[in-house]
Amino acid sequence: MVAEDDEKQAELVRRYLEREGHAVRVVGDGLAVLDAVRHREPDLLVLDVMMPRADGLDVVRVLRSEDRELPVLMLTARSTEDDLLLGLDLGADDYMTKPYSPRELMARVRTLLRRTRRPAGPEPVAEDPVLRVGDLVVDPERHEVSVGGGPAECTPGEFRILAALAAEPDRVFSRQRLLEELHGFDRYISARTVDVHVMNLRKKIERAPRRPERLLTVFGVGYKLTDPAKAAARRA
Questions:
Q1: 11 and 37 in contact (C-beta within 8 Å)?
Q2: What is each CA distance from 9 to 5, 26, 71, in whole angstroms?
Q3: What phi, psi does 35 have (nearest 5°)?
Q4: How many CB atoms lie within 10 A of CB 185?
Q5: Beta carbons within 10 angstroms of residue 159's beta carbon
Q6: Which of 5, 158, 9 lies closest to 89, judged by CA?
Q7: CA distances for 108 relative to 17, 37, 74, 80, 195, angstroms
Q8: Would the N or C end of the chain have less CB density within 10 A of its end CB?
Q9: What is the pLDDT of residue 43?
Q10: Which phi and psi (to 5°) does residue 201 adopt?
Q11: pLDDT value of residue 208
């Protein structure tokens, strides 16, 4: 789905997407986006920030409040880092500023679909096993996270970072490595993107987010996920 109120821009994006074999629906305002998604959720939403009736940031806020996990790629004429971080904080998966290259946009779309689309047909049981780090459980197949038996709602970007960390507990991941896990391209966004996701994850999986015990910073290197109980036993 392409949400863009500029008809010429929307037509350009639609043509490029259809050239790559995608079925495309174009909508021109924020409330129409919400109605369309609720009627039939798309595989991916290309969402302009500046739209009538409800802007793109409000659309993302509502979609995530409804626990919808569809990937969202935001387009905007705004270029400040605060705007970018706000979009990611609300749950957008990627962010491009205008003017942009249509070829780059297609590359981003391919990456997001590759990261989030489930293959057709039954998957082997051994594929995407449940990941456990202490009482933190990450289920890639169901896209669910729980801590101490209670659910923790994560955005798609947060989930991919957490799943990567949980797959290799105690391994230190650089910010660059986590950026690659997010998007597959290492030149599009800054390392602060990872920091924002980590900050939000700590609010969801830590008892005291400002004194994390699970998702730890390794200064000068990156982040790692650990089991607090095992860490305490090693210290003892």
A1: no
A2: 8, 11, 20
A3: -60, -45
A4: 14
A5: 22
A6: 158
A7: 12, 21, 11, 20, 21
A8: C
A9: 92
A10: -65, -40
A11: 93
Q: What is the 3-state secondary structure (H, E, C) of the chain?
A: CEECCCHHHHHHHHHHHHHCCCCCCEECCHHHHHHHHHHCCCCCEEEECCCCCCCHHHHHHHHHHCCCCCCEEEEECCCCHHHHHHHHHHCCCEEEECCCCHHHHHHHHHHHHHHHCCCCCCCCCCCCCCEEECCEEEECCCCEEEECCEECCCCHHHHHHHHHHHHCCCCCEEHHHHHHHHHCCCCCCCCHHHHHHHHHHHHHHCCCCCCCCCEEEECCCEEEECCHHHHHHHHC
Is 5's pLDDT higher than 80?
Answer: yes
Q: Is the alpha carbon torsion for 98, 200, 106, 175 positive or negative?
A: positive
* Encoded amino acid at 165, one letter: L
Are residues 17 and 109 in contact, defined by beta-carbon separation less than 8 angstroms? yes
According to DSSP, the residues that pair with 59 across neighbouring strands are none
Structure-token pair, residue 101: 């290259």
Look-up: residue for tokens 């249509």?
A: 102
N-terminal to C-terminal alpha carbon distance within the chain? 54
Torsion sign across C-alpha atoms 60, 64, 65, 68: positive
The sign one gets for the Cα dihedral 113, 70, 226, 146 is negative
Range 228-232 average pLDDT: 82
Rounded to 5°, angle at Cα 84 from 80 and 85 = 115
